[in-house]
């Protein structure tokens, strides 16, 4: 049986970084199929690292991620598995999914579950002098509903076949998942998706 976790990550006090928690909140009005665990981890990276060790088949992280697209653009990312080196623990007041995955890999004896990231391109980040910047920008706020719809397509497909990667709804978002980080540009011979 496929065990699937949908985890929202991000800081609700840093503008568009609150995308993941806002999607999880919106899912309360449109629940996913029974048996799927939906949880907001916020900035609790250590909690998420330990959760990844709990026998999940697939984990879908919902997060804001700057990838050079238009604000509000959704992308489906399949991060590379973490390397063998031990990672520094996640920060107490931050959430870096790559560090969380590396820590979980270091702590666990079993392979990590398949991890996909449903990412939203944030708008302008808070300025350095802003400690708190609540509220999503308009394009990211609009993307919350699109992400909920995308999860209602992704999750049933993943429950049926945990190795499948269903496309996102909009054509420009339907490319196969790309490795974490910004893809190489066409100038280098690699296709930008």
Spatial strand arrangement across the major sheet: 2-1-3-5-4
Q: Provide mean pLDDT, rounded.
A: 81
Tertiary shape = globular
Give the biggest sheet.
Answer: 5 strands, mixed
Q: Could you tell me how far the N terminus lies from the C terminus, measured between alpha carbons in angstroms? A: 32 Å
Q: What is the H-and-E element order?
A: EHEHEEHEH
Estimate the strand proportion. 15-25%
Helix fraction by DSSP (H/I, runs of at least 4):
25-40%
Total count of strands? 5
Number of helices: 4
Radius of gyration: 16 Å
Uncertain regions: pLDDT < 50 for 5+ in a row? 171-193
Q: Structural class of the helix and strand makeup?
A: alpha/beta
Please characterize this protein's 3D structure.
- The protein has 193 residues and is of the alpha/beta class.
- It is 26% helix and 16% strand.
- It contains 4 helices and 5 strands; from the N terminus they run βαβαββαβα.
- It has helices spanning 19-27, 45-51, 97-107, 138-160, and strands spanning 4-9, 37-42, 58-64, 74-77, 114-120.
- A 5-stranded mixed β-sheet has the order 2-1-3-5-4, with helices on both faces.
- Helix 1 (19-27) links the parallel strand 1 (4-9) and strand 2.
- It is globular, with a radius of gyration of 16 Å.
- The N and C termini lie far apart (32 Å).
- The model is unreliable at 171-193 (pLDDT under 50).
């Amino acid at each position: 049986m496929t065990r699937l976790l949908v985890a929202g990550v991000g800081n609700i006090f840093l503008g568009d970084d609150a995308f993941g928690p806002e999607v999880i909140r919106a899912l309360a009005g449109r629940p996913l199929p029974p048996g799927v665990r939906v949880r907001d981890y916020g900035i609790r990276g250590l909690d998420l690292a330990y959760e990844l060790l709990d026998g999940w088949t697939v984990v879908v992280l919902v997060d804001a991620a700057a990838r050079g697209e238009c604000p509000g653009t959704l992308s489906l990312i399949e991060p590379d598995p973490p390397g063998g080196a031990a990672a520094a623990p996640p920060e107490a007041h931050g959430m870096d999914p790559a560090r969380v995955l590396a820590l979980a890999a270091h702590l666990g004896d079993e392979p990590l579950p398949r991890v996909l990231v449903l990412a939203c391109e944030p708008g302008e980040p808070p300025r350095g002098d802003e400690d708190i910047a609540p509220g999503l920008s308009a394009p990211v706020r609009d993307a919350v509903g699109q992400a909920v719809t995308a999860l209602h397509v992704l999750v049933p497909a993943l429950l049926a076949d945990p190795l499948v990667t269903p496309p996102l709804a909009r054509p420009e978002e339907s490319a196969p998942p790309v490795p974490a980080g910004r893809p190489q540009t066409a100038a280098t011979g690699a296709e930008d998706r």
